[in-house]
Amino acid sequence: MSDTTIDTNTPRASALAQARLPRWAPLGLAAVSIAAGVGIGSAAGMSNPFQWGLIAALLFVVLSYGVTASVEGGRQAKNQLATSLVWLCFLIAVIPLFSLLFETINRGKTVLDGYFLSHSMDGVQTILPGGGAYHAILGTLEQVGIATVIAAPIGLLTAIYLVEYGRGRLAKAVTFFVDVMTGIPSIVAGLFILSFWIIILGFDYSGFAGAMALAILMMPVVVRSTEEMLKLVPDELREASLALGVPKWRTILKVVLPTSIGGITTGVMLAVARIAGESAPIVLLVFGSQAINPNPFEGAQSSLPYYIYEQWQLGNEASFNRAWAAALVLIAFVMILNLVARGIARWKAPKTGR
């Protein structure tokens, strides 16, 4: 068999060897766009850097499309246009988040120290510096913990019913009401507990009342996340267990749940992070307290969202600083929960390879 060679001088080969932009081209276009955006914004009298950034972003999209079209052709230009728009939307979403985080850290660090984390506002004049948020941190931990104890088992069992047993009208009705509960405002849950638990049954304002409202908000999130995780378990695992004569309830307990425990735990942790910052039901039901109340079942209690609202409402510099510090503590609490959820998901994820 004779060797064959490809003539690179043929028209077909030259068509395949299409011109390409260098790898540094996007960075160069970005630098040119930023410089042009700053120049146009300054010439137009715009003093806000965000306005300059929007102009630079639009210029980058236009320049990248035009340069790519002139060098690489229309097909690659369309691909570059889509890529640029994706990055632009990503930056538009991320910049406000980083701005919020930077502002909270910058203002909250002024009074955030060990004293702030270990003292309450009992006996502290609100117009003067001092005091802390220990009573609010304790209330948040207790209320969120009680809500999790109530909502997590109910949500888990509901999801198991919908995936493993649910058939017919009852399952459709449960799914419908779970979807409705997912979208209800938090103030509605607070009003329901206020009317039923406090007005009708005659119980007092307490952290437990707020925890029940938080549990109502948490349950549909747990149901939906757990339901999706259970659906991802292959049916072959269930069939193999049932073929060995294992009862269905034991198959769910020993096969289905261990397989999806990572995703279920992540969903529960994200639901906890979602309710940790709720303020409307807490304002209605917990009623607030300046002193430390370790008993969530008796007497008024505080929480971090209520503490932030309370301090900001006072309207003086010292209370503003305490509100920013409490907001920073709440953000740190939510971030820790999200990191724990990601760690559990990575730890419990199915292992690939050997």
How would you explain this protein's 3D organization?
With 354 residues, the protein is mainly alpha-helical. It is 74% helix and 0% strand. It has 14 helices and no strands. The model has no long low-confidence stretch (mean pLDDT 85).
Number of helices: 14
Structural class estimated from helices and strands? mainly alpha
- How many strand units? 0
**Fraction in beta strands:** under 5%
Percent of residues in helical segments? over 70%
What oligomeric state do these chains adopt?
A: single chain
Give the rounded overall mean pLDDT: 85
End-to-end C-alpha gap: 44 Å
Task: Let me know the largest β-sheet.
Answer: none
What pattern of helices and strands is seen along the backbone? HHHHHHHHHHHHHH
Could you name the ranges where pLDDT drops below 50 across 5 or more consecutive residues? none
Shape: flat
Rg on CA atoms, Å: 28 Å
Pick out its properties.
mainly alpha, 354 residues
How are the secondary structure elements laid out?
Layout: H1 11-16, H2 25-43, H3 49-72, H4 74-108, H5 114-118, H6 134-165, H7 168-182, H8 186-200, H9 207-231, H10 235-243, H11 248-276, H12 280-285, H13 304-314, H14 317-348
Helix pairs in contact: 2-3, 3-4, 4-14, 6-9, 6-11, 6-13, 7-9, 8-9, 9-11, 10-11, 11-14, 13-14
TL;DR of this structure?
The protein is an all-alpha fold. It is built from 14 helices and no strands.
